[in-house]
Design brief:
The chain has about 120 residues and is an all-beta fold. It has no helices and 11 strands. It has strands at about 1-5, 10-15, 20-25, 30-40, 45-50, 55-60, 65-70, 75-80, 90-100, 105-110, 110-115. Strands 2, 4, 5, 6, 9, 10 and 11 form a 7-stranded mixed sheet that branches. A 4-stranded antiparallel sheet has the order 1-3-8-7, with no helix packed on it. Strand 7 and strand 8 form a beta hairpin.
Length: about 120
């Protein structure tokens, strides 16, 4: 099993920034994709961004240009820098990974909450 632990969420004013971190531990073979979903009030869970083990990143249109995803493979950690936060960015941000060398499994973190006020 792979465990994912997120950190970095909090309460911020509109226009401010945060850096979210997610570190994987446990029985790690290959972290092929790491990324972030979020779920805001009254919304379905949506993909925010993800990044492959080769460094290819994808972003939701709503965050492109404001959010930046990166990963440190040596630390089994993925980061999400969230800039210019607005009210619609409020929600619980969930880290996930697709891992495995042959058969892939999906793992989820427990989430870190981002609340954007004003």
């Amino acid at each position: 099993q792979v465990q994912l632990v997120e950190s970095g969420g909090g309460l911020v004013q509109a226009g401010e920034s945060l850096v979210l971190s997610c570190t994987a531990s446990g029985s790690i073979s290959r972290l092929r994709v790491m990324g972030w979903y979020r779920q805001g009030p009254g919304r379905q869970r949506e993909l925010v961004a993800d990044i492959t083990d080769g460094g290819t990143a994808n972003y939701a249109d709503s965050v492109k240009g404001r959010f930046t995803i990166s990963r440190d493979n040596a630390k089994n950690t993925v980061y999400l820098r969230v800039n210019s936060l607005q009210s619609d960015d409020t929600g619980v941000y969930y880290c996930y990974c697709n891992a495995g060398q042959w058969v892939l499994s999906t793992y989820w973190g427990q989430g870190t909450q981002v609340i954007v006020s004003s």
